[in-house]
């Protein structure tokens, strides 16, 4: 649709500019192939490119160009499913900047999808099946026994014990236990 509209503007431009040109000696009109060749030649020149850029920058022209949603959807699907598209995305995801930008822009959507999946019984069952897999159990156990994980766990526990909120809760639990112990001692006497 966009190419056709672009070609239409180019043809209008050519015909309007060639309308004032002198007629050939024999008075015959140019045929389609000659006109097409002339238009293509004009579009390849710097002046032709500049004229097209100027036309496309015009707000009125932008309003006239209507992008067909179905066409865009089909184009994206074809691009993603083609071999060339697959190679492009594989290469694009190797670039850390691209991957980070894409991940950041889609983070909210991913979180929403994960939240919905966690409520889905079928997904929960699939997740449980994966976790019950003996090879998965071995890997998780290996991870939990690793030196790095233990260091991380130690750091988390230390930070938790140093937290004022946690210290307050522990103090409350100790006070409650002392009171209960004192109450039991009084009952026994």
TrEMBL record:
The residue ranges of the Spore germination GerD central core domain are: 65-178
Provide the organism lineage as a comma list: Bacteria, Bacillati, Bacillota, Bacilli, Bacillales
Has the keyword Mitochondrion been applied to this entry?
no
Task: Give the protein name, as stated in the record.
Answer: Spore germination protein D
Q: Which UniProt keywords apply?
A: Signal
Q: Which NCBIfam families match?
A: spore_GerD
- Where does the UniProt annotation place the signal sequence? 1-21
Q: Does the keyword Signal apply?
A: yes
């Amino acid at each position: 649709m966009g190419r056709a509209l672009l070609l239409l503007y180019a043809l209008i431009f050519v015909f309007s500019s060639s309308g004032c040109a002198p007629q050939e000696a024999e008075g015959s009109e140019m045929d389609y192939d000659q006109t097409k060749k002339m238009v293509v030649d004009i579009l390849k020149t710097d002046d032709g490119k500049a004229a097209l850029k100027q036309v496309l920058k015009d707000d009125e022209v932008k309003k006239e160009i209507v992008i067909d949603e179905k066409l865009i959807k089909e184009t994206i699907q074809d691009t993603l499913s083609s071999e060339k598209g697959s190679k492009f995305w594989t290469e694009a995801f190797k670039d850390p900047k691209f991957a980070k930008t894409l991940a950041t822009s889609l983070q909210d959507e991913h979180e929403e999808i994960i939240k919905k999946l966690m409520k889905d019984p079928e997904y929960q069952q699939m997740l449980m099946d994966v976790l019950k897999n003996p090879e998965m159990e071995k890997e998780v156990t290996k991870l939990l026994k690793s030196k790095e994980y233990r260091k991380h766990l130690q750091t988390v526990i230390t930070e938790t014990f140093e937290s004022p909120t946690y210290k307050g809760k522990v103090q409350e639990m100790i006070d409650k236990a002392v009171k209960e112990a004192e109450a039991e001692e009084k009952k026994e006497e």
